[in-house]
Specification:
10-stranded mixed β-sheet; alpha+beta
């Protein structure tokens, strides 16, 4: 029975493609036959074999292999920094540099990029993933950082619990330099010694743990936006050399070159802390189906960190149709405590954000009915808990509908995040209580009343078009003083 071909999704063509595997017959014999597995254990996985092959690819005569390889695998020579005829060996060609414009880096402080060309799998939560490359086949990501019992492994298990992971698999045909996926300060790269198994799906589908058993270099990057990010370069069969070319301990911009691999297929693994990143939807969809996505270094890895939120007075409106991609946050059920007249606790606010795929760095755009009345309330509640990246959609739901913009009843599903519970609410910063208002009034400082004229005068207790609940209040103490302050506030050039 013929072995299944390797299929991947081309992010640029938006099509499924079949991979042209370098040395496929040899790989399948090694990993899919009993005799081949004996050769794997006895020789192929060991550093001596890769050193010998790398030595051959560094000899001058190996330069004769470059042009046939370019033709066979349709490698784009227009990207090369130097002529295809100028390479002194096959290894020289393999670790080639490209013209700067060949790999543009996606801008934006909140955008992470792919660290290398290749075929990529993403896992929004490694703990929740049902397998890497094959269902049921996983490894503990802490094992990537060191041997069992090592302090590095112990620290990584805690720091990256529930984190997100990108496996970037480079084929021999790919550009084999790797770059920083985020801006930050990197540590020295730490060597974790190991074997040199293949990182092809032909091998990893048999045992994904090869990635934790291979020789690798581990770097931690401290970033202002993504927290601590781990970047791990994994060697493979015939890739015994991983060269680090950066200077540790200083800030390096995303897209800056970090290092290179010598001959063979290889792999870069990038790990983010829980709740720090949300991958683009197309990457999540393909990876969930077990399909790698082809993308080049510098291409965006993250979705725009934006969440659209609908919050209405009429809590049933959302289900009748909403802006595509918008989630529903009920200003009463989600933001008010149901046992006392107060806002929810910080822990419950964190849960509201987490279940809607919101991180502390997400720009949240609110809209709703009644000229954004309750949407503004929801926005204010977010600010109360210290989430300042908030905006109101101009004109709200009414303007959106009046302009015949699209609505849908389909409810979106976003990967859950781990929003940290705020230490406290910002009550003192943005709320005024009774005592504050009274002291402000006695000091004859301006107060602005934004209610309807009838409410302001005390004739009604609610907006004119709403039922009037409770009894009408008579004039309050300091009423005239308050009125004069309000008038003066409206007239004040400072306001």
């Amino acid at each position: 029975m013929a072995s299944a071909s390797i299929r991947y999704y081309d992010r640029y063509k938006k099509t499924l493609e079949t991979e042209q595997v370098y040395g496929e017959r040899w790989l399948r014999w090694i990993y899919e036959s009993a005799v081949g597995k004996l050769a794997l254990d006895a020789l192929v996985k060991r550093a001596l074999f890769s050193k010998w092959y790398g030595w051959r690819m560094g000899r001058a005569y190996s330069a004769n292999l470059v042009l046939p390889f370019i033709v066979d695998y349709n490698v784009n020579t227009d990207e090369f920094e130097k002529s295809p005829f100028a390479f002194k060996s096959f290894n020289d060609f393999f670790a080639r540099s490209l013209k700067p414009e060949a790999r543009p880096v996606t801008p934006g402080d909140d955008v992470a990029i792919f660290p290398a060309d290749g075929r990529h799998l993403v896992f929004p939560n490694v703990d929740a993933a049902d397998g890497f490359y094959v269902k049921g086949v996983k490894f503990d990501i802490a094992d990537l950082f060191g041997d069992p019992g090592s302090p590095e492994r112990t620290a990584a298990a805690e720091k990256f619990a529930g984190g997100a992971m990108v496996i970037s698999r480079l084929c021999p045909v790919d550009y084999h330099r790797f770059h920083f996926p985020v801006t930050g300060v990197p540590t020295d790269a730490k060597l974790v010694n190991g074997y040199l198994y293949s990182v092809s799906p032909i091998a990893l589908s048999k045992n994904a743990r090869y990635l934790t058993e291979n020789k690798r270099m581990v770097t931690l990057i401290e970033t202002p936006r993504f927290g601590t990010v781990a970047m791990i370069e994994v060697g493979a069969t015939c890739v015994g050399t991983i060269r680090e070319l950066y200077v540790p301990g200083r800030t390096l911009a995303k897209g800056e070159e970090k290092g290179l691999f010598r001959f063979g297929g290889s792999c870069v693994i990038t790990i983010f802390q829980a709740g720090r990143i949300r991958f683009d939807d197309d990457l999540i969809a393909q990876s969930a189906a077990g399909v790698e996505s082809y993308a080049r270094m510098g291409d965006r890895l993250t979705a725009p960190d934006i969440r659209i939120v609908e919050s209405n007075e009429d809590v049933l409106l959302y289900d009748t149709g909403h802006i595509p991609g918008a989630v529903h946050i009920d200003w009463r059920g989600d933001l008010q405590d149901n046992t006392m007249r107060d806002y929810i606790a910080p822990e419950k606010f964190a849960e509201v954000c987490s279940k809607n795929g919101i991180t502390p760095n997400t720009m949240v755009i609110f809209y709703g009915d009644k000229s954004n009345w309750w949407a503004a309330y929801a926005l204010w509640a977010f600010r109360l808990f210290g989430h300042t990246k908030v905006k109101l959609l101009d004109g709200g739901r009414d303007k959106w509908k009046a302009e015949n913009r699209p609505l849908t009843r389909e409810k979106p599903s976003y990967a859950r995040t781990s929003y940290p519970a705020p230490a406290q609410r910002n009550d003192e910063e943005i709320r005024a209580f009774y005592a504050d208002a009274l002291a402000h009034s006695k000091a004859r400082k301006p107060l602005v009343d934004v209610r309807s004229p009838g409410e302001y005068k005390g004739d009604i207790t609610h907006m004119p078009e709403y039922p009037q609940e409770g009894v009408l209040l008579r004039l309050l103490p300091h009423r005239r003083a308050l009125e004069s302050h309000v008038v003066r506030a409206h007239l004040s050039p400072r306001l």
